[in-house]
Amino acid sequence: MNGRREAGFSLVEVLAAVMVFALISAISVGLLTTSLRAKETSEAVVSDLAAVQRIHALMAEDVGQIVMRTARDEDGLTDPRLFALDVEGADPLAPAREGEAREILVLTRTGWANPGGLQPRSGLQRVAWIYDGDQLWREAGAYPDQARGAIPVRQLIASGVSDLRLSALMGAVWTDIVQVRPVPNSEGTSQGPRALRLSYTQAELGPMEHVVLSPTAERGA
């Protein structure tokens, strides 16, 4: 009995095993943290890229089907703006302070498909683009002339948008402030923009720019 040795680990062996385990755990946690951060960054970039594509698609649709038509509010009052653009606020009757949501683009467009007239709405839309210094929305109603009690639908297009600039090609000149109003028949017809240019900085992707054509440009006018 006195000559038998008990099986087991020495203190040095146990400490060495604990150190190896701690080292493996630290490396694993570091890899997991890096992986999670990369996933979050990737998701943010994908989300911002989708927002950029959405901005371009909606603006191309709106401007590409623009029509020079006035609109009426729910009180029957005519908004004389056939087309208006100003990043500081396109509504002269509702000036906005810096950081407040304001209309930056107002137009009427056609081409809103309604096969068979199944939906209780028009094929025309009165559209307003709204910006507050960070978020960009698109607002549109079911009819170009607002019915009493009807609430336009506001869609969030993108967040994290800064340094936004908007201009229209009027004739051969890019202009930052535009108010197109009806003219008497004897003086011809009101001319809309040939193209729109929108530039901004997206939080994750950096500087962006979109240029879209109107029907006027497509006709070669």
Instruction: Determine the fraction of residues in helical runs and give it as a percent range.
Output: 25-40%
- Can you count the beta strands? 13
- Are there runs of 5+ residues with pLDDT below 50, and where? none
The string of secondary-structure elements, in order, is HEEEEEEEEEEEEEH
Percent of residues in beta strands?
Answer: 25-35%
- Mean pLDDT reading: 83
- The helix tally amounts to 2
Structural class: alpha+beta
What is Rg?
Answer: 29 Å
Main sheet record = 7 strands, antiparallel
Which features would summarize this protein structure in a list?
about 30% strand, 2 helices, alpha+beta, about 220 residues, about 25% helix
Structure description:
The protein has about 220 residues and is α+β, with helices and mostly antiparallel strands. The chain contains two helices and 13 strands. Strands 1, 4, 5, 6, 7, 8 and 11 form a seven-stranded antiparallel β-sheet that branches. Strands 10-9-12-13 form a four-stranded antiparallel β-sheet. A two-stranded antiparallel sheet has the order 2-3. A hairpin with a 4-residue loop joins strand 6 and strand 7 (about 135-140). The longest helix is centred in the N-terminal third of the chain and has 54 residues, at about 10-65. The chain is elongated, with a radius of gyration of 29 Å. The model has no long low-confidence stretch (mean pLDDT about 85).
